[in-house]
């Protein structure tokens, strides 16, 4: 799994990166919020982002807000890693859209545990999204089948609601985009 680190302080960035790489993660690191925002907008953005609060350009909280406003089925899981430790700051970080919050200096074991939780949640969310998409497709097919087809009893043409046209049975069956039909070869024909 790929993780983004956005941290302007070199030592902290390297400590986090080395730890993550030692635990088997692929890491992309940047030094400011603008770079982090650019990466997180990509189609193949990292699933987890560890952001410092205080960075040049955009700060971590601004990046959190912008990421959470994106219309994505699976937005990245964001961990704010910051020296800010007041209750007010923690609440502000979560209100901005952070999924987790850690204070510096960080403990290696705690970071590993929190990243593992993030990874589990990301995998679960991805699986749920795929399952929902499959269920929607099945429901669409069921609705089409239950809705029935309008067939002319004289010429046996079939009415297509999508384009308000009548088609012969052959035309209807050969149209690959018609959800009424699931195209497969029957056992009798597969032996030919």
UniProtKB/TrEMBL annotation:
Record's keyword terms, sorted: DNA-binding, Phosphoprotein, Transcription, Transcription regulation, Two-component regulatory system
Name of protein: Response regulatory domain-containing protein
InterPro entries: Sig_transdc_resp-reg_receiver (IPR001789), WalR-like (IPR039420)
Entries under Pfam families matching the protein: Response_reg (PF00072)
PANTHER family: REGULATOR OF RPOS, TWO-COMPONENT RESPONSE REGULATOR ORR33
Phosphoprotein recorded as keyword: yes
Domain Response regulatory: 2-119
GO BP field: regulation of DNA-templated transcription
GO cellular component, as recorded: cytosol; protein-DNA complex
Residues with 4-aspartylphosphate modification: 52
PROSITE patterns, alphabetized: RESPONSE_REGULATORY
Keyword Transcription found: yes
Organism of this sequence: Desulfomarina profundi
Gene Ontology terms, MF aspect: phosphorelay response regulator activity; transcription cis-regulatory region binding
């Amino acid at each position: 799994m790929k993780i983004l680190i956005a941290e302007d302080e070199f030592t902290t960035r390297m400590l986090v990166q080395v730890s993550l790489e030692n635990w088997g993660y692929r890491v992309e690191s940047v030094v400011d919020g603008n770079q982090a925002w650019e990466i997180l907008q990509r189609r193949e953005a990292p699933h987890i982002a560890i952001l410092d609060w205080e960075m040049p350009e955009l700060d971590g909280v601004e990046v959190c807000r912008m990421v959470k406003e994106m219309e994505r089925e699976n937005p990245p899981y964001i961990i704010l890693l910051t020296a800010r430790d007041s209750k007010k700051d923690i609440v502000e970080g979560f209100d901005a859209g952070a999924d987790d919050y850690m204070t510096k200096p960080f403990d290696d074991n705690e970071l590993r545990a929190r990243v593992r939780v993030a990874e589990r949640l990301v995998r679960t969310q991805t699986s749920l999204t795929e399952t929902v998409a499959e269920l929607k497709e099945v429901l669409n097919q069921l609705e089409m089948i239950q809705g029935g087809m309008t067939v002319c009893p004289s010429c046996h043409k079939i009415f297509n609601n999508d384009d308000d046209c009548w088609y012969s049975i052959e035309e209807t069956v050969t149209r690959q985009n018609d959800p009424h039909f699931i195209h497969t070869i029957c056992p009798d024909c597969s032996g030919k």
